[in-house]
């Protein structure tokens, strides 16, 4: 009815349009004439031309009609296919439907051709019922929908499942697959992964630091480098800088080291003077180090804490002295030992956990007084093993040696927000960390030997309920690390293993790169060189013939001076072959000849001296002629008769007197 009514109104509409077009042309001619007159007066042309206008409503209406025609054409083609597959009884009805569709299409084409005569005036389409919101003709009965609609439904289902996953943080834990890296036999006490996630570094109680490259490893999972940077000191901490080009090594000695990506030494901190009382006046630490970390914004700055009771910041380029010193103090002002330290996410705060159970936080630029100070955060005397700031920079997680894990809000630092107990901790470096989305807190538990399995425990940050746990191995879980870029979890255990947990769908690169590579096959030549050592003279063609008689062999050996050990004859002549002749003509040969002679004299030394006295008195040559003019003549006393008789008496009488 609507279509026929529109056709009846067409003659009147055409008449109106005709008069309107004629009026418009007349107006245009007048404008052109006026434009020519203005152009002759002003000196340039261009007046009187009509600007081109666009009617967007007409364009949209034309687009809508084109869409209707195309959708109707697609429906007709599908209807043809259905008619071909259906039985012969259904064919007439299908033909009738096709004919009606074609006639309606023809009528619409005629109406559209009539309506498109004028571009200046828009004729609205026929009004439809309010219930018909869909574009195009109604769908045939039994039509289930196009593939696009089904894909939209699938996308909606996927979005719903994704929303469910977003609401449940447990489903984001990448724990479906794991690989094991064998560091050694002793505790893996340090673990670090560079920011890009390409290399992993492990350190342990066996003094070794091992480098693992995920892109270069295959399924054999072997480290490409192992070294001992601190000789016989246990590795306490390993940290990559924010750029990933250098590594901080904190060991049991007083000097931290900085290595490059390949393990070569870049700098070593200076050691302080242990006899100075004020630790602020020393240039470095004087006691064993406990922990260290890099500044999250400044790539050259790092921090260490030590048993000398100080927390020091350093610069990589100035190794001769520290930058600043922070000295933790108790309530009574006494020195306390910091066991762990960390920067806040923005690098403006420095936090340290101490042996007396306190957690002290300073402003990085003000080292005198603490900005936040919490007394009895953990049990006094227990080593606070780890401090970790959340990604939003407001929440602080602390892992204590009193078997607890606590969450703090630094804006209200008097009491913990949440607390979890019963988490056994036997190590002074047991880690805790936040998940990349800040919804979970992760830590490890310790066990004694052959008394259970160490676990990796996950807590919800808000409710602090244990939502998930992983039994890692039959030893303590010391280190744990959740890399935000790879979405993989690394753990270091007490039996020398480093385990990496990942998910093939949720994780990226990292461990996924090496598990897909098969082991390299050993070449045959390499296997031979490892199993056998072949020398040229060991081959059969070079073997000497076997002697039939031992007598002939003995006679041969007797003539050989080396085998018979014939003594060397004395050298005659001037000497040769490094040997000195018996009668040499040089001074050195004479000394060598007489050096071993025994020249000891067993005669009486007094008699040996006095045997020259008579000749010296009769024929003076050295001393007496020199003093002949100045020497007075000796005058001796004459002996009396009594003296002569006394001299004649026996010796035993003289002694008695």
Automatic annotation (TrEMBL):
Q: Which PROSITE patterns match?
A: WD_REPEATS_2, WD_REPEATS_REGION
Q: Quote the SMART domains the UniProt record gives.
A: WD40
Supply the alphabetized keyword list: Repeat, WD repeat
Q: Where is this region: Disordered?
A: 70-177, 544-583, 628-657
Basic and acidic residues bias: where?
70-81, 544-568
Source domain of life: Eukaryota
Which is a Pfam family this sequence falls into? WD40
- Coiled coil regions in record: none
Answer whether the UniProt record assigns the keyword Membrane to this protein: no
Which Gene3D superfamilies does the UniProt entry name for this protein?
YVTN repeat-like/Quinoprotein amine dehydrogenase
Q: Mark the WD repeats by their residue spans.
A: 181-213, 282-324, 343-363, 377-412
Q: Where is the composition biased (Acidic residues)?
A: 149-167, 636-648
Any one Gene Ontology cellular component term annotated for this protein: site of double-strand break
Q: Which InterPro entries match?
A: WD40/YVTN_repeat-like_dom_sf, WD40_PAC1, WD40_repeat_dom_sf, WD40_rpt, WD_repeat_GAD-1
State the family named in the UniProt similarity comment for this chain: Belongs to the WD repeat GAD-1 family.
PANTHER family linked to this entry: GASTRULATION DEFECTIVE PROTEIN 1-RELATED, WD REPEAT-CONTAINING PROTEIN 70
* Stated name of the protein: WD repeat-containing protein 70
Native source organism of the sequence: Nothobranchius korthausae
Tell me the name of the encoding gene.
CABZ01066326.1
């Amino acid at each position: 009815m609507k279509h026929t009514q529109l056709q009846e109104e067409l003659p009147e509409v055409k008449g109106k349009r005709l008069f309107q077009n004629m009026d418009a042309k007349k107006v245009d001619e007048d404008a052109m004439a006026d434009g020519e007159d203005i152009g002759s007066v002003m000196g340039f042309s261009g007046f009187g031309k009509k600007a081109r206008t666009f009617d967007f409503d007409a364009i949209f209406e034309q687009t809508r009609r084109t869409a209707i025609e195309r959708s109707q054409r697609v429906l007709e083609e599908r209807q043809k296919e259905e008619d071909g597959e259906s039985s012969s009884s259904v064919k007439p009805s299908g033909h009738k439907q096709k004919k009606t569709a074609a006639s309606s299409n023809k009528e619409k084409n005629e109406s559209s051709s009539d309506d498109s005569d004028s571009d200046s005036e828009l004729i609205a389409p026929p009004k439809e019922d309010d219930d018909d919101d869909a574009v195009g003709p109604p769908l045939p009965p039994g039509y289930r929908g196009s593939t696009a609609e089904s894909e939209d439904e699938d996308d909606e289902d996927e979005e719903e499942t994704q929303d469910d996953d977003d609401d449940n943080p447990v489903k984001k834990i990448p724990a479906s697959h794991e690989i094991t890296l064998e560091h050694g036999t002793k505790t893996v006490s340090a673990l670090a992964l560079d920011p890009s996630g390409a290399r992993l570094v492990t350190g342990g109680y066996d003094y070794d630091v091992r480098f693992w490259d995920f892109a270069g490893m295959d399924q054999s999972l072997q480290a490409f480098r192992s070294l001992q940077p601190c000789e016989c000191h246990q590795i306490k901490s390993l940290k990559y800088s924010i750029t990933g080009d250098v590594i901080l090594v904190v060991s049991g000695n007083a000097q931290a080291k900085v290595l490059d990506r390949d393990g070569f030494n870049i700098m070593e901190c200076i050691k302080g003077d242990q006899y100075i009382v004020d630790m602020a006046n020393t240039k470095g630490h004087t006691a064993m180090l406990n922990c260290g970390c890099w500044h999250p914004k400044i790539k050259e700055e790092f921090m260490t804490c030590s048993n000398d009771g100080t927390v020091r910041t350093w610069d990589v380029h100035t190794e001769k002295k520290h930058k600043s010193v922070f000295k933790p103090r108790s309530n009574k002002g006494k020195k306390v030992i910091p066991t762990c330290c960390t920067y806040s996410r923005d690098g403006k705060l420095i936090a340290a956990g101490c042996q007396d159970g306190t957690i002290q936080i300073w402003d990085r630029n003000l080292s005198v007084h603490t900005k936040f100070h919490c007394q009895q955060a953990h049990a006094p005397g227990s080593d606070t093993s780890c401090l970790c700031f959340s990604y939003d920079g407001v929440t602080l997680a602390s892992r204590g040696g009193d078997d607890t894990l606590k969450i703090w809000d630094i804006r209200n630092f008097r009491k913990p927000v949440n607390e979890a107990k019963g988490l056994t901790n036997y190590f002074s470096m047991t880690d805790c960390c936040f998940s990349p989305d800040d919804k979970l807190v992760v830590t490890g538990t310790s066990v004694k030997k052959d008394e259970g399995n160490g676990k990796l425990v996950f807590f919800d940050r808000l409710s602090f309920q244990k939502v998930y746990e992983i039994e890692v191995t039959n030893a303590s879980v010391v280190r744990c690390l959740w890399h935000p870029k790879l979405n993989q979890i690394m753990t270091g255990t007490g039996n020398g293993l480093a385990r990496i947990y990942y998910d093939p769908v949720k994780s990226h690169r990292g461990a996924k790169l090496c598990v897909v590579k098969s082991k390299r096959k050993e070449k045959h030549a390499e296997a031979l060189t490892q199993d056998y050592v072949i020398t040229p003279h060991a081959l059969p063609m070079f073997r000497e013939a076997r002697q039939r008689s031992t007598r002939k062999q003995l006679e041969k050996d007797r003539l050989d001076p080396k085998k018979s050990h014939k003594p060397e004859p004395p050298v005659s002549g001037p000497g040769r072959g490094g040997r000195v002749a018996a009668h040499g003509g040089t001074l050195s040969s004479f000394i060598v000849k007489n050096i071993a002679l025994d020249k000891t004299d067993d005669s009486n030394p007094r008699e040996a001296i006095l045997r020259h006295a008579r000749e010296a008195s009769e024929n003076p040559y050295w001393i007496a002629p020199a003093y002949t003019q100045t020497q007075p003549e000796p005058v001796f006393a004459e002996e009396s008769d009594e003296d002569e008789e006394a001299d004649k008496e026996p010796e035993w009488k003289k002694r008695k007197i």
